[in-house]
Amino acid sequence: MVAYRRNFVPGASYFFTVTLRDRRADLLIRHVRELRAAYCEVARKSPFTTDAIVILPDHLHAIWTLPPGDSDYPGRWRSIKSGFVRRLARAGAVIGRNHRNEARVWQRRYWEHTIRDHDDLQRHMDYIHYNPVRHGLVSTAADWPYSSIHRFIEKGDIAPDWASSPDDQTMPDRGEPR
To answer: Using one digit for the tens of pLDDT, what is the confidence trace for 105-120?
Structure first.
């Protein structure tokens, strides 16, 4: 088995990609209310700041900043994932189980990247907000309802028509964040 190495920096900001096991599923948007409830419950019990987030049908991207002295993002993700599965079950969703009786909803692993500086943070925020356009879900980033881009538009940090098409020049780098 591969030995995963995580970077634990207390109080740091991290970029995450968390994915459903079935990449064809749309559970995250079909049950967005249950996902939000699980997410908010964990944020109340173990506070963190969500700097940016987008929820897509089969995965989500988020940037979190943890409190000073705290680096336990794995515990938070474990709680969010399990809380979502419990809420799915209560909502009547059929949940497959493996031979260990573990729910077959989420991929076991997730991608984590420690944000290095302001430019790295901006690149990852752009990536998050552009993702629904990149996946062909909408033609304008602001059209996707499950994105923190709306908070940035309200504050005047992002124009409502930002990244409105694949050839839009207002977004400098549309590749995977580094």
So the answer is: 999 899 999 999 999 9
Contact 133, 56 (CB under 8 A): no
CA gap 125, 47 in Å, rounded: 20
Closest CA to 45 of 84, 79, 92, 7: 79
How far apart are the C-alpha atoms of 112 and 132, rounded to whole Å? 20
Nearest one of 5, 83, 3 to 39, comparing CA atoms: 83
**Is 73 a known active-site residue?**
no
**At 149, which helix (H) or strand (E)?**
helix 149-155
Interatomic CA distance for residues 68 and 65, integer angstroms: 9
Unique residue bearing structure tokens 């399990």? 82
C-alpha distances out from residue 12 to 4, 43, 64, 65, Å: 19, 16, 8, 6
- Check residue 127 and report its DSSP letter: H
User: Per residue in 139-159, pLDDT tens?
Assistant: 999 999 999 999 999 999 999
- Residue, of 61 and 163, whose pLDDT is higher: 61
For the chain, how far is it from start to end, CA to CA, in angstroms? 25
**What counts of helices (H) and strands (E) characterise the chain?**
5, 4
* CATH H-level superfamily of 13-155: Transposase IS200-like (3.30.70.1290)
